[in-house]
Amino acid sequence: MREIFKIFRIDADEANKILLAGNDLHNHDFEELIIGNEGQLEHFIDFNSETVTAPFVSFISSGKVHRLRPVPLDGKCDIWVLRFRSEFIPETIFQLYSSYHNNANISMKDEVCFDRLNQICGIIYQEYTFPSPDLSVLRQLLSALFTIIESERRKMNLNNEESKKIQGATFRNFLNLLEEYYKEPKDVNFYAEKLFMSVRNLNLICQGILHRSVSEIIETRKLTEAKNLLMTTDLTISEIGYELGYKEKSYFTHTFKKKAGMTPKEFREDISRMFS
Length: 276
Fold this sequence. Notes:
Helix content: 40-55%
Number of helices: 12
Order of helices and strands: EHEEEEEEHEHHHHHHHHHH
Number of strands: 8
Largest sheet: 5 strands, antiparallel
Structural class: alpha+beta
Radius of gyration: 20 Å
Distance between the termini: 18 Å
Shape: globular
């Protein structure tokens, strides 16, 4: 997906087209939030198949192998699909990975809560379809969606169950430390010592949840913030690199290109073309 953000709606006709076309197992390089008002969703993810009936929320993180099939129920289907790149909301993306690991689908019972989600999706869609949508407005509204969903998760006690399954508390503590120190040149030993655990055990937890090592997560967080700054500020490439703990512009550019497949300058130019 080249766009930073995208939203669309699936009705019964579109759902039937998807069913006829088929939808093989796949993964993608963007995050995906699905909010179902009517109908069902057949979802195969993490080697498990589940059918959820609206109202529901599903979140699929980048890289997850899965298959989605929207299904009309009593001839009705109404599903919002929001796709975005991780740099769009960099401050919350790893918390989302933790919260939805092995629990991608949530059946919602609170109609008032779900009405609010649906209303916000409508506002997002209206802003998105303007000739020149305001990315800051879209970002704030998307963050509001996740805040409301997380509030409902707490009421349903899902986070406590998740913590028992995947040592979520330790992982969230690591993420909190990462948010505090990722702009500084801190290595894996620093985070392990802060958490009073070995590097090996911290790596095992991170591999179990994100299938990435601690060092990979640190570099990904830096890259995500670099993209965000390139997209939303006028800071020079050198200034962005320095802010993220890279003392030399050449090393920052090399690291960015290795991870992103393009230089910071090329990324900024690419984003500018999308919204020019």
